[in-house]
């Protein structure tokens, strides 16, 4: 049975990424992902991918240590915003209302049990392409850049968390998320959980932080239009000295075609293509993978590189 | 502002296709689309594509004239089913409750203003792969066939309608659909309208029937996993003597990558790939294309073949 | 039986393209094809695609009328150059020896029976990437640009000719070319002929000029790495206001996956991908297509747009 | 300077593969590669991929131990066959003339220095599609199967060899092959060498056998039409329980996009797509990779799985 609050969160809105290599990270996102810089403010720039309908989806901020800053989710309506804010407040994790940045309106701030800073909001400014750069198709936010990996839109955030289940319960209870898939270890512990809020298969993911730390990031992901964008992206990253960690492969879990790289600040960035996979069933039953099933390998049966299970940002004793 | 009933319909469930060339049409769907036959009953077979989560999505029925039979939409819950049935009944287009076929439960039957037979339902049996043909991935309904055009799932139905606007108003009012895009002629008339019920950009479409007929079909569509499936599909159709009408191209409207063919019964079948495009915005504003904008061509600026604007099933004075 | 001079010509070397819109054409080739400008001289620039091993393959020249200038073929050796020069001289079409441009050595100039200016040469300077732009892979000429249609290398030239057969006989007799495919009309006339000089299926093509003119160009073509480059190229061209004439489709003849556009000067440019097709057989028998076979349509059975049979450069009564 | 005998060998003709799991291997090649069985004889079947122009390219033979049997190369002419036979005979490695199988004419048998059985021939029967299965395109050998990995043609053989340089010298001197790329260790030893005979970048490869054995196989490869065939092939192999060893990735050396699997008999099979890469230069200079360059990783900088450097057939102390 569907979570009765499902739909109150519409989708992942924007992410703040902290980087210790600001200039190089900025080059990475604008040149290799072909994102447009829509604003600069203090130590941050605000970035937009060509199919993002909102004004920005990535805030890139210079910081002594790389990692993830605030992650914001857009609600389905003003009423949904009030409902979710009340539900979060009831958990004791609420911080309070504030004004959003760069066209984002009233936002309710909170932290998940792992301490990651989060917000929800409804009001938002839609992206407007500059007058001298209107796209050929009026149903498209920005001009099709056709360069680099040509990132289409922000797709999801994958947190590391000390206690996956506790974080997941919060996402389900306070935000109305539903787990589409999860991994359960032989100990009974859930070691990873994928949450969705709409027909897309996931927007927020938690993976167990094997270092026992809190507040860390596994990766953020951008959707590409096609699998070929990911293959060509690998050529582009090789040519530009970006470390490719893994892929292009297709995950067993969620069947996402992927490539993982480290942006110059060390944050892992995924490029993901779900093909035509959608969660259309209103009564989807969470797919659970056992430890044994995971041991078969996750990418067409092949083993995952070890750093995938250890590297996170900020770095902890790597 | 979002339609307050949006979400009551979860998605397009299944379609009945009538064919005057039953044996050849059956070969087309099972051999060239790689659909599985899950049941046969009377003059019909019930078919399933590898990612359809329900037991069947296509009912193929021998008939003197080709065309579209009953189209059924699944609701988001039992309550949503009751709400929509009541709303339809209030329009005077309701027919009444009946039992669904092949695992589909209680269904409410009605017609749209154009006379197309439709139903809504919630209870449904999920597809179970045969014991000797379980897929390698437990998050997938059926084995990956890897042959023909490898159709992934039923995607949408595109009706021809005498009065697009009247039909569209019904879809919006009675079913909670929202128009993501539409064409408005210089006369002010809406000549085509695309409706969605979830994050997918459309499930039901109406195009003006230039013959002035009612109850006809423009096409039904299947989603393929990738654009390359569509390119390879063109090779497969050429090799097997299937008439390719148009494509592979990318529509300006909805940006769908497509191929149109006529199945042996004469019904137009589309193979569609939306890339990573999703309607995530809860406040999406209908994109309206003018007659002049349409005249620029719809596929990368190229002109559409004339039969696309005339051919429908059942045939009327072609 | 193989033409005994086959192999004396190694491949198409470079092409001069005349354009009445020099600045716009230059933008087209450098920005949308991602070619590198290696030199400028008088009214011309010299351009290089990332996998061209020679210093340049396209000379773009400002001119009152668009069309094709000199086309040069590289021989397999110095001895082969002497042999072919002698053979051409014997036909009476020889013009004489001259020095090549931009690193190309001693060249023998001549015209084909249609009057197109041509040359053969052996000595050539290999492309050297600038010191600050060395490719990541040492087996690649230049950095992988990853933008626009990402043209990989010059592929072929397709001339219009008043008398296809006469031109073809010259290519076979004087240059050792072999026709891999051809079209023969019901009248017995050959209306198009594809010639190759190595395992690639064609480097030089003649199509009948329906205007009865001489010296005109149907198109020049660039190879892309993949079919997806061509699909993405269509998006790029649409976004940048370039007229797409036809495609992306797969030709029946030669099975080339193609897209035809007009560069700003009006010259037709093809982007071509042959997949893994190669002419490996030393005793390949010319494939002949009849008028009836052609009438079935050339792109997956679909009809070709009429301009494809009329538009050429320089324009003649279009 | 080009090897003066280059061109005497036209291309790799056919390979005999020995398998200890004959029935399963036969299923692998006919069902998953979509090859056609053209003949059966004794313990062998003869197989054809849809673009192979000759009658067969793979002879599959039941055998106690898996591995590679006879590999045959087709010459460019009868005269070339005589020249090469004489050159081989002069090395003392000739065995003598015999009749080929299944339409292959007079063949000269020999062994390479490592002891692998080889042959050269010119006369050959072209593949004829059965009357009830003629392809839609007359320039194609067989119907386009559109299933499984849809192997287009036999591409190359990669031997393991005790002494790469000795074997390579033989290929160059006796057969006129040219090394397009090679790896040289810090010791000065060549550890792998890629030989070509036409515009394709390689047909025969030697890699050092780290077990010190002789006569073993690293892999044989089939060309697929597109990179997407390889991605879909990975899905097909996963679904059918075939061990995927590595890929889909793009090799640094030769830039081949690849997937390696073990067929049921344990022989490694590669699926390879070279994109539009061709060796057109008549004076190509062998690209040499140092040990340090190799250590950077071969697939977009990623490390190769260890079995790639140890597994061969017949197996030796794995």
From TrEMBL, chains A, B, C, D:
Domain of life: Bacteria
Residue intervals of the VOC domain: 11-123, 153-274
Residues spanning the signal sequence: none
Example of a GO MF term: metal ion binding
Coiled-coil segments: none
Pfam families, per the entry: Glyoxalase
Keywords: Dioxygenase, Metal-binding, Oxidoreductase
TM annotation in the entry: none
InterPro entries reported in the protein's UniProt record: Fosfomycin_Res_Enzymes (IPR051332), Glyas_Bleomycin-R_OHBP_Dase (IPR029068), Glyas_Fos-R_dOase_dom (IPR004360), VOC_core (IPR037523)
Matching PANTHER family: FOSFOMYCIN RESISTANCE PROTEIN FOSX (PTHR36113:SF6), LYASE, PUTATIVE-RELATED-RELATED (PTHR36113)
Protein name: Catechol 2,3-dioxygenase
């Amino acid at each position: 049975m569907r979570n009765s609050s499902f739909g109150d969160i519409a989708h992942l809105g924007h992410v703040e990424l902290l980087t210790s290599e600001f200039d190089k990270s900025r080059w990475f996102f604008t040149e290799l992902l072909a994102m447009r810089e829509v604003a600069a403010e203090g130590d941050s720039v605000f970035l937009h991918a060509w199919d993002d309908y909102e004004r920005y989806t990535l805030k890139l901020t210079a910081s002594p240590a790389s990692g993830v800053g605030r992650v914001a989710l857009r609600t389905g309506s003003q009423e949904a915003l009030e409902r979710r804010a009340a539900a979060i407040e009831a958990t004791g994790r609420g911080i309070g209302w504030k004004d959003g940045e760069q066209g984002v309106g009233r936002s309710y701030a909170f932290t998940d049990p792992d301490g990651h800073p989060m917000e929800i909001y409804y009001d938002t400014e839609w992206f407007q392409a500059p007058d001298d750069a209107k796209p050929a198709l009026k149903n498209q936010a920005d001009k099709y850049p056709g360069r680099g990996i040509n990132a289409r839109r922000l797709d999801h955030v994958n947190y590391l968390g000390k206690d996956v289940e506790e974080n997941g319960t919060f996402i389900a209870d306070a935000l109305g998320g539903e787990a589409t898939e999860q991994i359960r270890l032989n100990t009974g512990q859930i070691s990873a959980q994928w949450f969705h809020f709409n027909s897309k298969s996931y927007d927020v993911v938690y993976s167990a932080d094997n270092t026992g730390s809190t507040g860390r990031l596994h990766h953020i992901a951008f959707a590409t239009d096609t699998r070929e964008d990911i293959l060509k992206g690998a050529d582009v990253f090789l040519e530009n000295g970006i470390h490719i960690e893994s892929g292009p492969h297709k995950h067993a879990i969620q069947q996402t075609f992927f490539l993982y790289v480290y942006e110059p600040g060390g944050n892992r960035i995924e490029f993901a293509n779900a093909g035509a996979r959608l969660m259309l069933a209103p009564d989807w039953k969470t797919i659970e993978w056992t430890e044994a099933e995971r041991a078969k390998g996750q990418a067409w049966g092949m083993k995952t590189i070890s750093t995938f299970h250890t590297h996170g940002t900020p770095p902890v004793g790597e």
